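Input sequence (175 aa), recorded before submission:
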Amino acid sequence: MMRCPMNLRFRLATELDLPKIKRIIGEAQAKLRKEHVDQWQNGYPTDDILRKDITNENCFVMIDAEDRLLGSFTLVVGDDPNYEVIKGAWKSDNPYVVLHRLAIASSFQKLGLARTCLSFVEQKAKSYSIRSFRVDTHEDNLPMRRLLKSVGFTYCGIISVADGTPRRAYEKELG
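Predicted structure, token format:
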């Protein structure tokens, strides 16, 4: 079994990271497809979306001591139009951060790196004095749903993303 890489760090993604980010997202799409999860199977996220994340300084990458890019995600601070309407109820009306497009390289799966990314986002939110963290996932993405539950997220209801697809929405209030 491979051990978790040490000396992990996060930084904003640059345009030079885009090919590696796309490769990692492609691996995640293949894994979801193999698990019969209809998430990220329609060309999403597009190159334009990823470039916009990078340009807007919302895309982060996780790097190890050997400068290997192990994963990426998008962190949005503030209101997200996808989260305006929910069939259910959010836990709070506080300002919030949202995590989107979390993907870990296939060769580094099952090492706790997604959990590490969530922890980084929590710390980032707290540094902005934001006390609410929201995320959504596909109904059939059971590994993500289990992860969210294990780190203290509460299921709040169903939202619809930009293309109208329903997603399970979660929130964690931060202390």
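Checked by second reader. The chain has one domain: 9-173.
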